[in-house]
């Protein structure tokens, strides 16, 4: 860190080396630890964001009075010192960059005394409970790991901005006080004081505004922007999150994919020194067929294989029944699963898949060249065919799904992830970076409950040009120019090419059961903008928080946000949200209808 | 602009040159203008964000059918074309970068027809009224000037981020859904659905959070961040605005000033190729004495001069009365004002200064070596002394203020600006960049109405170390380590070194009449954080919108914001804010109390 010398310090606590031997220096920072050796000798680790320097108080150099004051210092006190650098007496400390020197202190200025420190921020052994970490966030953020994460986050955002600016994108700020947008989640509302009875909504995303910017001729827009969704309680969600938002004009799908791929190559190279190479594309159907998921984790096997043809030739009612109803039978080979997965575990898996609609989980094992246990007797006859199709080997466990395509995919897809975790098949952080573009999503999916088609993405997503002709005749098989960017089984972002042709838009609205009037009401000013000369355009939105989680090896979204909120949206440090005077509410023309507290 | 060729275009509309003669190209963009020459010949200016290219449809090359379709095109239609480049027949157009060539069209794809265009975005002659510009913002933003402003804004933010990152700052995102902060303006409130009866507040600035980040050990924080103030109607304010927010630890005032000065040198150099040189410092008192303002416009003279000693020796009651009451008499010399400022104008000035508390405006003129008109007869005797002190010359007008120091400063300070505008003394944009640090603000000012001291900045602003001893004995003269950054008379930002010493903080709270309990209630969690080891720290906040206004030569804040709001906070394009269903309100436990509309 570059610091310009001032009255507090000449160097940071990470800067001094043997070359500085003899130099007069000033340092400032937090007391990391104090070791009193008695006999007028105190060693102290002084910490700032740059590192730790050992400083020494002794009666001879520092004077008795200073040693006595040093002896009273406690962890997290803030001090400023002056002294001189000397080579360490008792050998160097290789764990510290400054480990070859120490600073002998001549003056001590106690800048602030710390009281009631709830936990030691540099204790590597034990992490405080999360409630304490959030309540005393200012202590928690002193932990070197948290500092490192926040710095990485800033660097990644800088890379995003630099890269995109270099390839012709302009960052444009869009409003926070805006209007309900049709994203599906609940809006946060803000009452207006100047317009009684009216409310702003915080944007769930700048989706409509970035499309407006394309109509405005910006051509290449991006923004790193806060988005707001008032969702139901989920531990891994935050009511406000950060998105890298992108939109481009006069482009095709490939242009968006190339832009994002190039950007992520740059990020991974610069942050982790990793070459991620080319990013493969996989169609939605292939992803569902092979992995039972539209965001497949391709770092390990356990792929799903359709064995309907073989299963159909058995007498096993579970299999034949499913096929007769138009469903499928799929199998997953678990190498070595025969030995490693106990009966108790496979019973638990059978329960597990039920939450995804499966009736149960037929399993068997290949041991001594035979199917053994589970559904062995029903399928022994087709063993050779299954061995051949699945590439089975001695000691494998085989799990089956027999139901509709969707139920089988979902349940075996989830089971696949669970087994991989249980059998330790998921590579450690940093070993594999399996980036993947999932493309060719269906444009719509059938909603059984509401008995109508729903957009898989949003109603402005363009059908693939070659599929436009079958929009009405073969709706289910119309693919869209939508795409998701997936890393190690987690969705980093997604987007689509938007419809710019009014006739195609009309057809899509009709398919979705939206009348022209409803479309106008719901998407009003965007529809208006489209009538004033809209270019072909498309874009993508990436979850910044999630990207940082991957880069910093954490599953906890609260680790990558300086001041995160709890699952119920509380800021424990600031005690927000909090009650407000009735008068303050009256000024914005609302009243609380919350039930009185007991 | 770098574009990668796709089905829509091989080049942008600003790219082609004579070197490309004969090349096959594809272009796309908006129809800027169409000129039908009859006889199967149509010229069209095609526009994208990069420029304009003339394209030609003729029966021979394009075919009759295409020429007929081209003839029907209207301004702002979106088209894609292919054709070949040729040297212009009738000589080049030096106004266009592409002026030496034209593109002869072989295929035409009408991508979108524009309807009901409210105004032509490239009409340089007349600007539409602002309501229309805001309502049809997507058309207004197509204007090259608006595109240029938004691009400049993005570049400036990039420079800020790059520069600050290079000198060790980390950008940290702070929450938007937060808590009331004691900034003085009204908060925007957001009701919580998960915590009935509780509300978030949108931050008026991240002031407290950036101080918390210093307690967290971040040392050098910045953020380009949206701030929210629910202020009363003023045309030049926006309810949400953008701030460059900075905070540093273990620093003195000079460190903040050097950082910002260095940053603005970089911005002005990179955007305007202007060297702003060193930025002078001026004390608050000097600024008030000489310019009657704490953000003096130093680009022209009209300085205020204290003539109390001379005025006190006259018999003019207005002067002697003011001095007897402890006030002052100040004079402002207006070179050439005798001829240029009519009686009608000086009468209007006398009315003008009344709004700032002045009783009137004594004026006179120096003509034929004598004071003439106005208050001439009262001060003729002291003419030589005034001529000497003010450096008066033949033809000057002299205006006086006689009242308390504050009233005289304020009224003559404002009059100074008005006369400078009226007499065309303010240099044109780009001629002078008078940056200035105003320093040594008083820590507190006396509030006559409330009969107590108020912070000039905020209650955490540190007194100058050398003034600490007189905090209780000579409160009015205690200066603080606060500073404002001023450009050409407009405040770009301000900040201060904060108090980190608990005893000094106690004294300040006492001076301000804040009990420990009140301080705790008002600044609760920050006070708590301060007890956990706070380093010395300070910072600054700069108004990004205002910086861009200076760089882009506009007085209209709405010109530098993509989607601005009107004075009553309306987004005319999106029709926000807007009414909300009672059910949606009930979900967040509020009800509207707005009077029913007629």
Query: What is the count of DSSP helices of chain A, taking H or I runs of 4+ residues?
Result: 19
Largest sheet of chain A: 8 strands, mixed
N-to-C span of chain A: 54 Å
CATH architecture of the largest domain in chain A: 2-Layer Sandwich
Low-confidence stretches of chain A: none
- Oligomeric category: homodimer
Count of folded domains of chain A: 3
Structural class of chain A: alpha+beta
Q: How many E-type strands of chain A?
A: 24
Features:
BirA Bifunctional Protein, domain 2; 24 strands; homodimer; alpha+beta; Gyrase A, domain 2; OB fold (Dihydrolipoamide Acetyltransferase, E2P); eight-stranded mixed β-sheet; 598 residues; 3 domains
Question: Could you explain how this protein is built, in words?
Answer:
- The structure is a homodimer of 598-residue chains.
- Chain A is an alpha+beta fold and 598 residues long.
- Chain A has 3 domains: 18-112, OB fold (Dihydrolipoamide Acetyltransferase, E2P) (Beta Barrel); 147-282 and 433-560, BirA Bifunctional Protein, domain 2 (2-Layer Sandwich); 300-422, GAD-like domain (Gyrase A, domain 2, 2-Layer Sandwich), CATH 3.30.1360.
- Chain A is 30% helix and 24% strand.
- The first copy, chain A, has 19 helices and 24 strands.
- In chain A, the strands form 5 sheets. An 8-stranded mixed sheet of chain A has the order 6-9-10-22-21-20-17-11, with helices on both faces.
- In chain A, strand 1 (24-36) and strand 2 form a beta hairpin.
- In chain A, helix 5 (144-166) runs antiparallel to helix 7 (253-272), helix 5 crosses helix 18 and helix 6 (207-215) packs across helix 17.
- The longest helix of chain A has 23 residues, at 144-166.
- At the A-B interface, strand 1, helix 4, helix 5, strand 6 and strand 7 of A face strand 1, helix 4, helix 5, strand 6 and strand 7 of B.
